[in-house]
């Protein structure tokens, strides 16, 4: 079952997801208890739409583990609300690396072929950030020695971007939202060979801003036609990417569906605004069926937008918008 996850296709996704569900309904103690409290008849779960989703907030209060293992590492979310952090226990870092490399390849070229520049100041303050681990891996394995992290040295970052542009180095600038906005306000750079990937997160530093306004500011300052985005979170092993227009595409082992805003146990056709449920089969060692607090819209081809968050939900590093 585990060996099939990263090679699954759309025709076999449901079958594999149901196998993962049957495994986790027994071997994930927290998910098993949750299903019991919902009085879920496991024998009647025969389709994707029958699978209950575990609220993402459970990662704040419980160790979500499927099977038995001593964690090699633990990822932790940020907490700007003072309500605690989510913890994701990893059986092995190699599994996470396989997932985020595969997720990246589904939307871009080989990560080694880019120079990775990272403007992630708030994340670097956290040793257990899954985003920092991912970007640091890309930096270390890049074919370009110019790759690296930048904190408050905007002048050095600007100089490196100019150099990369002048010699034709394909570059990705990873940036947390508030840092990219600050950068855009201070500098005006003509970027032709650079992809900007905003990872979300105002982190309480600035007023929240809708994605369209954010991207318009960045596109104007950096003379780009599009801004890319990453949708990921501490509780997931995989990431979805929006190459343009804020529309995210999942890797084959990840699928997004919807539920009605006022009914956490319902399903939605996704044609109107709904709350996002995520299946991430790479979460085989925790729980693959996550009910998020993100409001979005799902397209017939499985791609999706993120429009905001439910009222009273915590501010999270991977999201930036207010629902309007």
What does this structure look like?
By secondary structure, the chain is of the alpha/beta class. The chain is built from 9 helices and 13 strands. A 6-stranded mixed beta sheet has the order 5-4-6-7-8-9, sandwiched between helices. Strands 1, 10, 11, 12 and 13 form a 5-stranded mixed beta sheet that branches. A hairpin with an 8-residue loop joins strand 8 (228-231) and strand 9 (240-242). The longest helix has 15 residues, at 13-27.
Structural class: alpha/beta
* Strand order in space, largest sheet: 5-4-6-7-8-9
Number of helices: 9
Average of per-residue pLDDT values: 90
Which of globular, elongated, flat, extended, rod-shaped describes the shape? globular
Low-confidence stretches: 315-324
- Span between termini: 41 Å
The proportion of strand residues reads: 15-25%
Order of helices and strands: HHEHEEHEHHEHEHEHEEEEEE
CA-based gyration radius: 19 Å
* Largest sheet geometry: 6 strands, mixed
- Secondary structure tally: strands: 13
Percent of residues in helical segments? 25-40%
């Amino acid at each position: 079952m585990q060996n099939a996850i990263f090679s699954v296709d759309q025709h076999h996704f449901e079958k594999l997801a149901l196998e993962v569900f049957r495994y986790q309904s027994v071997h994930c103690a927290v998910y098993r208890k949750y299903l019991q409290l919902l009085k879920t008849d496991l024998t009647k779960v025969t389709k994707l739409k029958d699978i209950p989703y575990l609220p993402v907030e459970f990662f704040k209060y419980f160790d979500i583990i499927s099977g038995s293992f001593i964690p090699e590492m633990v990822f932790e979310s940020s907490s700007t609300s003072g309500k605690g952090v989510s913890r994701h226990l990893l059986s092995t870092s190699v599994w996470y690396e396989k997932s985020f490399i595969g997720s990246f390849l589904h939307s871009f070229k080989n990560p080694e072929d880019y120079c990775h520049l990272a403007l992630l100041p708030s994340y670097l303050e956290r040793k257990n950030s899954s985003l920092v681990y991912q970007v640091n891996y890309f930096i270390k394995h890049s074919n370009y020695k110019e790759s690296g992290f930048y904190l408050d040295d905007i002048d050095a970052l600007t100089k490196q971007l100019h150099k990369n542009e002048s010699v034709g180095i394909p570059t990705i600038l990873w940036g947390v939202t508030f840092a990219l906005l600050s950068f855009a306000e201070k500098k005006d750079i003509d970027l032709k060979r650079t992809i900007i990937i905003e990872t979300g997160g105002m982190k309480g530093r600035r007023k929240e801003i809708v994605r369209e306004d954010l991207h318009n500011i960045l596109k104007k300052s950096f003379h780009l036609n599009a801004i890319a985005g990453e949708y990921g979170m501490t509780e997931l092993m995989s990431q979805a990417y929006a190459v343009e227009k804020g529309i995210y595409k999942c890797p084959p082992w990840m699928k997004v569906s919807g539920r009605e805003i006022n009914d956490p146990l319902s399903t939605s056709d996704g044609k109107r605004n709904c709350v996002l449920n995520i299946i991430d089969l790479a979460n085989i060692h925790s729980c693959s069926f996550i009910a998020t607090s993100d409001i979005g819209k799902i397209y017939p081809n499985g791609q999706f937008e993120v429009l905001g968050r439910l009222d009273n939900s915590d501010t999270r590093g991977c999201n930036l918008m207010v629902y309007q």
